[in-house]
Amino acid sequence: MSRRSQTMIKGAVIGLILLTAACATTAENNETASPTEVVSADGAAGTKDRDDPGPMPEEDYGDVPSECVAAGIPSAPSDWANVERAPEAWPDAPAGAHLCITSSTTDANIATFVSSEAWEDTLGYYEPSLAERGASDLARVRGEDTGTGYEQLEGTLDGAVFLIRESDSGFSLVFASTQ
Length: 179
Hints:
Helix content is 25%, strand content 30%. It is α+β, with helices and mostly antiparallel strands and 179 residues long. It has one domain. The strands form 2 sheets. The chain has a 6-stranded antiparallel sheet with strand order 3-4-8-7-6-5, sandwiched between helices. Strands 1-2 form a two-stranded antiparallel sheet. The protein is globular and about 50 Å long. 28% of the residues are buried.
């Protein structure tokens, strides 16, 4: 495959990552609404924050790892079997990483993990492991260069273009076929 085709695929994959990241916005990034006046049943006036619905009942997130819920990513499905474009030689996730979400488009698969490890430790795990498995075109890309502020590792392995993208609570793996 030509370098231009690889660049186009990587661009499409980066777009998917940005879309995924935008969908995973946490409440801390949202502005708080102004308080609104309320009147209680006994006629006493007061204020209540519009964004504070009061105590919420405990939610049952089923099989979703508690680490994912704590990071604000309580959704499913999160089955590695859904990541069909991942090369067979792909290494297991590093210790301390928990798979939270898997998603697919017609062009790519995305797996989002939360991790207690620092980004440098995640890279320190994946870089040598992927090199041993025959990955090519391995390159670190600075967050300033991606326009996202998040560093990534990209390359190809067994006919798949991949990105490992840093995030606030862990990392995402993105796979696209080169064929």
